[in-house]
User: Fold these one by one.
Assistant:
Number 1:
Amino acid sequence: MQRIDYPEPLQRLVFQLKRLPGIGPRSAERIALWLVGSAHATPGRNGQTAGARGRDLATAITETAEAVHPCPQCGFFTTAPLCAICEDDSRAGGPLCVVEQPTDILPLERTGVFRGRYHALGGRLAPLDHVSPEDLNIDGLLDRVRAGHAAEVILALGADVEGEATAQYLAGLLREFPHVRVTRIAQGLPAGGGLEAADELTLSRALTGRVRLT
Amino acid sequence: MLLRLELRDFRCFPFLRVEITPGAQFFVGPNAQGKTSILEAACVLLRLASPRAGSTLAPLVRWNAPSGGFALAGSYGGRELRFLYSPERKKLELDAVEQSRANEYLRLARLVYLGNSDLELVRGSGETRRRFLDFLGAQIEPLYRVNLRAYERALRSRNRLLKTAPDRRREIAAYDVPLVEAGTLLTSLRRSLVAELTPWAVGAQTAISAGDDPTLGLRYESGIRGDNNGGAEDFTAALHASRAEETRLRQTLVGPHRDDLCLTLADRAAAEFASEGQQRTVALALKLAQASLLEAVWKTPPLLLFDDIFGELDPARRNALLAALPAGAQQLITTTHLDWLDAPPAGPVWELTDESRLRLRFSGG
Ligand SMILES: [Zn+2]
């Protein structure tokens, strides 16, 4: 007897949805059925017909995939040849902030404190996970420093072993440029937390990175 | 305090229920496997790991168990604990509420397991003693655990590079700073841990040997060559000095992964010069010191599990050990017989029959 399953395209959709982060097989099936507007799903508002929800999403995905690409200079997301940050001339003389991932840029940007440009490495050195310098955008960073616009390079990498080692590695390479100041973002206490809540490691790092008041 | 223990389809037991009292209790009988399994069950219920099998729990399921898994339950400190294991799934309950994380469950109970393998603390390699220190340190100090993990990660990363790409010196050197940072802290944590442990261990050894054995000494020996307590500077210097050698041997040669805890009797190495009885006494003293330190930190004594160790001591030491056990601590003791006792047993004596049943032989003093 023939085994009945969803039609082929629907199965492919479920398969694709399952590959998304945080989506299990059950959720994938529910989302797929919602997109094609099955009997269990309620019809869309604004007079949308069944399946329109899926078409809108498909269009958004296709447009994004075609239009958005990483900025060739810093790695941030853009639809133009360069991203909005790299295009902003007022940032030209500012420091260069090195981050692990392009997704680290927006949180820093939202603080409103930083007025320079960024450079996303695309990861960090991790021999145990088979990530070596060739896997990261380090040459691009050195080119930018060599081009000589930034007087300071700020390393805004993770506070774990790999983040620390990556910072040390980059600091070693950047010694070639004696006119460039290399700094690391301070690691300290979480806002709203008292001293008694912090562990000793955090406290000792916060002490090392202390700031002069007078 | 553990007041009840229930085993279902655990090792040789289809079902067993043990009422446990404060203080000492004895499990006697020739069936070594069964007695040990009762202690193992207490350990698995409270710590979710076996002293014999570690966290691999599949071998603990009784052969032919209908559900394919085992269940353990007990009452500890007024809380009801339940642990169900099957190859598909582990389930934890606290007061009949299922726990999605083990944190709160594991915070309840502390125990110290004393078995014949403890002799390795004296006779075995430095790794056994480092593991002993780390296990204790991680239990009494959260920073110890976090920092140990950071050190091990930095060390493994650095060794991976030395092994696969020894010529990539800049990458290897990038791990020097995290290695030195975590390693220096680990060195000072271990040094103070040994200092805290020493008076307890010396006291226990004196008590068990009735003062007959030469004085026990504990000395922390740093794996940082040329360590003058200078911390980071000494470690960095030692790393630099070992560069040629580590490139040749393709591994990090200095650091706290080479630490040792030197055990001496009258300043002579216990592993080489002490008799077997003296060595067993030193191992026991270290474990009892561990229990004392845990009690000092947690303000409540850990549960003590003695797995067939009395039979390996001479009768005088057996009685001295029993007399020296911390009065406030609960003790589960297995032994083949109790003919050696100088005084009536301090607690109930259970006999394990061939049919894996418990029979009360003596209801306690
Ligand atoms: Zn850009």
Note: Chain B has a mean pLDDT of 93.
Number 2:
Amino acid sequence: MTVSISPLKLSVFRGEADRGEMVAYSVPVREGMVVLDAVLWAQANLAPDLAVRWNCKAAKCGSCAAEVNGFPRLLCKSPVDDYAGEISVRPMAAFPLIRDLVTDVSWNYEVNKRIPEFTPPEADQHDPEPWRMQQVDVDRVIEFRKCIECFLCQDVCHVLRNHGRTDAYFGPRFMVRMASLEMHPKDGLDRRPLLKGDAGVGFCNITKCCQEVCPEHIHITDNAIIPLKERTADAYFDPIRALTRRLGRRSAG
Amino acid sequence: MDTAYETVETDVLVIGAGGAGLRGAIAAAESGCRVTVICKSLLGKAHTVMAEGGMAAALGNVAGQDSWEAHFADTMKGGKLLNNWRMAEIHAQEAPDRVLELERWGAVFDRTHSGLIHQRPFGAHTYPRLAHIGDRTGLELIRTLQDRLVHRQNVDVHMEVTVARLFASAGRIVGALAYRRADGGLLLYRARAVLLATGGAGRIYRVTSNSWECTGDGTALAYEVGAELQDCEMVQFHPTGMVWPAGVRGILVTEGVRGEGGVLRNKDGERFMERYDPERMELSSRDVVARAINSEVVAGRGTDHGGAYLDISHKSPDYIRRKLPSMYEQFLKLARVDITKGPMEVAPTIHYYMGGVRVDPETGATRVGGLFAAGEVTSGLHGANRLGGNSLTDLLVFGKRVGEAAAAHALQHGKAGAPRSPEVAEAIACLLGPLQRPEGESPYRLQAELQDLCSKYAPIIRDKPGLEEGLSRVADLAERSRTVGTGGPTGRVFNPGWHTAQDLRNMLVNAEALFRSALARKESRGAHTRSDYPNPDPSLATLNYVVSEGTEGMTVQGIGAEPIPDGLVSIINRSYEKYTPEETE
Ligand SMILES: Cc1cc2nc3c(=O)[nH]c(=O)nc-3n(C[C@H](O)[C@H](O)[C@H](O)COP(=O)(O)OP(=O)(O)OC[C@H]3O[C@@H](n4cnc5c(N)ncnc54)[C@H](O)[C@@H]3O)c2cc1C
Ligand code: SF4
Ligand code: SF4
Ligand code: FES
């Protein structure tokens, strides 16, 4: 591990919705420091009102999502010695800015309310015995349940980020959510009409940008979205899914 | 200065959206109340999300001989019998139902071969008892409850809203003052019942596993509105936090590592737990293991960075990555250590507040009418030392009970009274004060000084001169904090300097309660160890130190606990059949 003695050059976006600029701070480096430490040091010592979200500083809560040198990341999971030279931090671009690094992610919470909750079939609901499930069946959904709702995948998805189609597509995070419900061994609902309709699974054209940034290494496209597309396509026609089928089934993880 | 506020009316106001708050809110909503939940962070990010190892419940899925009695006995012994026995009894009896209920709401757990919920061994639990999913059980609990909650009727969630003051009138709670982080707007909540579920105060220490939110707000708010606190000297040091590199110091290494077979060694390669607890070794209770590591370091047998080695690399890499995925990732990413190949370096870190608001064991009621509390903000269940896994089931068991009790209270009592306007005006002035003092001292500096002094003067091993010094320094800081600023900028839109000044106020109340209670308890028991009183004093065995606000400031009083009924004493003293695991890798 390298011990760096020269201070770190950190530049952080400062500002509110319509105006803002990158501001440079010089931050002393400690071994093992992550970018969040650097931002918090600047906050405590140089810029007391620097707005940043964080909770756990252990990559478990998904609060500290931002863009580091242009790449969407968790600030608390980005060691500064991964970067040579200056580190620049900007807020996620897909969401409205509140201030500095903090964005308004409330849309995501509204979307979640529109996905019907876990609902076991009647018989299971009233089964007086504890449920039995096999580990292999559980393993199918465990991957999706690792999601820490950092919304980094939402941030990079071009449907939301570039085309602003929050009206048409729920985004990769909620495809993962739907997959975790649809593939739960004890769930009895059919969310395919929603997937095809309001959730807009058809808008995903499998660029896989989302799964590249997922800090939990969830194979969002391969294991959640493509199988969901296949499920809906059994009932409806989806041109992109037809294409992937022609290209051969993917498997990952 | 804009002192305008919006008024929000509700039946049950739930403050906190960790496990306790969410479970409480669901219970209150299902009882037919209008519920408003407020939390300092975004929904789903509360401290609970970090919980790793699992939730303790005597399901008996792995060890068939487990029973609520055995769980109760372990909890009481682990807590050195200082626990509220009735809470421990309720917890042990109801935990299995709450875990199964969570599963019915969609939570996913690892399975046994026969398809039941798998349970892993944990420190001081006689049987494998922790239902878990890998090492991210807290996330599963939070996500399941969060989803259940937002789909209930009559529930509003106000995220990134912080309560700054509670109001009571004629001995009854009537409401709360809060501010919204996003725009600095003020909110006055009027409620018939308030459920406090604000978690612990682990952030008053420098080296901690706790999230930034754990600034002890609930204990301070309850204290100021007339409730009692208890056992504030009982602060749990988790034996295994990360120590190196410096930037990650304090981050938790789950007890699950030891549960899965990890061993502790000092720098000479000696498995030192043999000298401290040859019977239970690494799976001894947390107070014992934390003191053991501390003693090794003090005796010069620590690692280079002042800790011990924790090694699981004798298990297969595949097993480690499956059972401890987050730990594997955490060390690889943050310490560049591959735990499938070599040991981790660990040392004690502040972890849990056994002390907190004093409540009725059945309902979580405080002595202020309509004010209830559940979860880490309360005291009683864990006594002088909490067993791993008992917190998550605490949240579920008491979250439900207390949510129902708060709802019942709200439904019985008519429209909530109104907070008195001079009190509201005073609370607003106090809240906005730092924004009017751009020249005031930096809240970040005061907070850092407080963290350093708690770490220095209320460490694992305490003594009178240190505690007295700590107390007097807390008083000095409290004085300085009266004129604290925001660090300079005085905007109200997401201004963390202003927020930190609010947190500081609460942290100071918690620190004062800690030092006063630690001075009062002249013995060593559980998590509270005093070098000047190294042994337990039997005459203090059933005494709780209770903190309340007197006319002259904070007072501490020893109050005798209700004796443990004979039937439960015999359950505690019973000998439980030893469990020998089959090797199942
Ligand atoms: C790393 C780690 C691992 C752990 N692992 C385990 C484990 O495996 N098993 C186990 O049983 N226990 C474990 N614990 C302990 C357990 O997670 C906590 O004790 C428990 O989650 C506390 O839950 P809670 O609901 O009481 O409070 P919290 O989860 O702390 O939630 C508090 C809530 O209150 C809100 N709040 C606080 N102040 C205010 C205010 N002023 N205004 C508005 N809202 C406010 C916060 O925003 C938050 O929503 C672990 C703890 C840590 C740190
Ligand atoms: S794969 Fe689909 S969801 Fe993921 S970024 Fe591309 S379009 Fe968006
Ligand atoms: S799927 Fe991954 S990237 Fe998307 S919100 Fe969840 S954890 Fe973040
Ligand atoms: S602070 Fe929790 S994920 Fe970074």
Note: Chain B has a mean pLDDT of 95.
